[in-house]
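Hi, here's the filled form for the chain we discussed.

Project: internal
Contact: R.S.
Residues: 86
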Amino acid sequence: MRDLQVDPEKDPVLARALVGTLRDEWRPAADAMRSAREWERRAYITLTLAAAARRRVDWLRNWLKARPDDRDAAAVHHAMESLDEP
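And the returned structure, exactly as it came back:
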């Protein structure tokens, strides 16, 4: 995840979420998404998590399985799919 580095001092919430993807923990990502109050911040978190999900798709599948109606998980999933489009 070299290109997905986030400074934990400047953005501890998103840094925890990215570490969570490596540990197959989806709750830190859910917390990060829920914390986003502004559209720009939400878009940044969504796209960053989507890029991480491309490498750790099982992590995202676990989140979707645990919370099938979670709109934040769905947003990350759709963003991940859009990253794969040509």
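Let me know if anything looks off before we file it.
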